[in-house]
Amino acid sequence: MADAEYDLSPEALLNEYHNSGPVVVMKYVTLRICVVVLLLILAIIFKDHFMDFSDFVGAWAVSLACIILPIFFYLKAFWNRTPWYEKAIGTFIIVVCTGLGGYVTYTTGHDLFLDIVSDKAFPYCPDEYSEVVYTNTSFYGNN
Hints:
One of its GO terms (cellular component) is membrane. Helices cover about 65% and strands about 0% of the residues. It has helices at about 10-20, 20-45, 50-75, 85-115, 135-140.
């Protein structure tokens, strides 16, 4: 019932951002600059593992920010006006994306935090090709 005291019309929601003034705009700009600087510092610190780190962060952040939270907030704001099938589909998508995001976060975190180093040059190739590129025809000759 706490939502009933706020105006949730599209005009009121847009008015919050369009008429916010230069102070709020500077807060957004400052926040974005801080995020870029933070990512730059992390890229320097994790220079050898930055791809693993970005995979780890992207696994949960992208699914959370682009899929889960927008659907959740839509359902929260318009629950009374949303048909039952949209509620069911939205809930299903939230559950599936939470599970998949958690799985990818777990698997990428495994690579990042356990730091298992292989002595093979190509650890994901079959054993007979783990030391050389198996598509290198000049190495194998023209058979």
